[in-house]
Amino acid sequence: MTILSSVSARSFDSAAMPTVTMIGGGQLARMTHQAAIALGQRLRVLAERPDDPAAQVTPEVVLGHHDDLAALRKAAVGSYALTFDHEHVPTEHLEALIAEGVNVQPPPHALIFAQDKLRMRHKLAELGVPIPAYTEVTSVADAAAFADANGWPFVLKAVRGGYDGRGVWMPADLAEATAIVEDQLAHGVSLMAEAKVELKRELSAMVARSPFGQAAAWPVVETVQRNGQCAVVIAPAQDLAQAKATEAEALALRLASELGVTGAMAVELFETHSGELLVNELAMRPHNSGHWGMDGACTGQFEQHLRAVLDYPLGSTKPLAPVTVMANILGAAEVPEMSMDERLHHLSARIPDAKVHLYGKGERPDRKIGHINILGDDPAETREKAERAAHWMSHAVWTDGWDHHHD
Ligand SMILES: Nc1ncnc2c1ncn2[C@@H]1O[C@H](COP(=O)(O)OP(=O)(O)OP(=O)(O)O)[C@@H](O)[C@H]1O
Ligand SMILES: [Mg+2]
Description:
Layout: E1 19-23, H1 27-38, E2 42-47, E3 61-63, H2 69-76, E4 81-84, H3 91-99, H4 108-115, H5 117-126, E5 134-137, H6 140-150, E6 155-158, E7 168-169, H7 174-186, E8 191-194, E9 199-209, E10 215-217, E11 221-226, E12 229-235, H8 242-259, E13 263-272, E14 277-283, H9 293-296, H10 301-309, E15 323-330, H11 340-350, E16 355-358, E17 368-376, H12 379-395
Parallel strand pairs: 1-2, 1-4, 2-3
Antiparallel strand pairs: 5-8, 6-7, 6-8, 9-10, 9-11, 9-13, 11-12, 12-15, 13-14, 15-17, 16-17
Helix pairs in contact: 1-10, 3-4, 4-5
This protein binds adenosine-5'-triphosphate and magnesium ion.
């Protein structure tokens, strides 16, 4: 009889691998969980509902609200780092957690500049970073005076809580501006005004930074918005002079360092017709403009975010193809009769190189329910393919008229 015990087989000790807590159970947490699995780690999420995208897939779910300190405490117990899939956790709660020994990454003194667009603008102005003209709005008169000085239409923004274009308005005249300002102020929403930038296009410079201070940048990408919401990302941004790309990357790295950001950060940029780059806003978490990297970069943003908040060395951000295009799958105005599974089946048959990411979300108009990544050599062809695939998944209609029944 062989005595096996003389060879000490070491079983995988999952308790020796770190658990990270992510506040928020949306698709960003779901995809971070996917990266955690590959690293042998676990992601615990604080989700509002058991059917939230991340709560569906991780066994470690704490149900609760991000405004509730007790729920945050419960989610933080025993985890190596606490991080976020959105920017809405009150900073006083984070200060309380830090005082109790929780490792919060990014720290609240950095996160505040992603939470509060007015504080972000003040800070960027102080750092000498190019931004649109802006002002705080506490009355209709403030808004009118700003627009008269900077031109109509102008941009009104909720200082906090906006996403996917919600909380952004572009009133064309005084009547429109008055209606929005009065309504929002009456609902307790703090407002600011910005000059409407004449955009050539929008770009995003994404970086990640660890508490140790190591930082890495992905190539600058172009983001295409529809109805104020990101629809397509082209990585890297095409026809961007090398000097401009380097300038944008350097700016994002500098901001991450000066603000003390840890984890992933997206710097949303406006490129003007004269080639100037202005900062729109900062997101301190994985971001839609980084989804391409899940398939198109050596290290994607979800893995990098985990590495960064855990203070590991960062991964290579090298692209794996000349171009990667990401297209969001948005809920259609009317849910197609064909099931999502059948749509996926047909997509798999027709575009076998489409990398599909579905979030487990119900289909509602314009809701981000998934995305497609396509790697390629030719930017226009790759974009057409990615958009055709995403449109198919949303609508069960091929934009080029192809019909699988007659071919
Ligand atoms: N000052 C501006 N000038 C021109 N367009 C603007 C301006 N501010 C915002 N926009 C447009 O509105 C979109 C949404 O604005 P912003 O990024 O501030 O809002 P959000 O809802 O917080 O964003 P997100 O979609 O990133 O969650 C921008 O991507 C851009 O297309
Ligand atoms: Mg934005």
